[in-house]
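Following up on my earlier thread - several people asked me to post the actual chain instead of describing it. Fair enough. Here it is, all 317 residues.
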Amino acid sequence: MSALSAFQFLPERASDIGRSVDFIFYALIVVCGLVAAGICLAILFFCFRYRRGSPAAREHHHGTSWKLEVGWTSVTFLAFLGIFIWGGVVYFHMSKPPSDAVEIHVIGKQWMWKTQHPNGRREINELHLLLGQPVKLIMTSQDVIHSYFIPVFRTKQDVLPGRYTVQWFTPTKPGTYHLFCAEYCGTDHSRMIGSVQVLEPANYARWLAEQQPAESMVAAGARLFTARGCSGCHTPNAAIRAPLLNGIYNKPVALATGAVVIADEQYIHDSILLPQKDITAGYAPVMPTFQGVLSEEEVMQLVAYIKSLTDEKGAAR
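Reply from S.P.:
Thanks for posting it. Predicted structure:
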């Protein structure tokens, strides 16, 4: 191994977004380096020019140059505005997962990462991914604030109790990579680590075949939907009048307050645990809360099931 290859300024890149993040980082280093170098050179120049005993003139000059003022102010403003816009474009790209991304659910708890794939496969402190497949992580915390950090993917997202956060990426390089919690979360925070394994299609299929058959997220949610009595209210022939859930995902919902919200994952989550928070227009606030009754994992399964329900035309929302 050469000395050049042994030294690595940044961790290797293994995601499609990594190059954009690195370029912004390098641009900031160059800009800050040029500014710092200019200041240092000016200091050295004045130290030499006006050292004790030098013949430099020291009379006070009161002249000003508005061209100089406007020039250096405009150049620095445009430079930093350009970096801001560049960073904003990358940020908004990172915040909008593609429609074909595979959804994987992650729960952080002291001190481990619990992961569940759509087909029901569960992992602890590990994450197996298919090379080249966009992945959307839907994350929440069971206790305190955590942060899901994969350095080689250049992605890091806080994981919050009672709230869903999302990060997405497309793995571009097979290998085994580090996974960290990047937010201090208690005594064993430093041990809340894991690994991400990016596998080529053949190896990924082999890994799936090696796992024991498991109940899918949707199937588990359907079972809970019936077992917890949800089907007694949220079905067309229910005895109690409640909003129908077929095809509700990502559709606008009118509230009793007159506001309109989108029924995303967070709305469905809050409707289960905090049913009095957003009352649907035309319905009485009679739904009981399931806070303290359902675990975050069970709520995720219910959300996955409700997202899978079809509308009147049979189209999955």
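Residues 5 and 12 are 11 Å apart (CA to CA). That should answer part of your original question.
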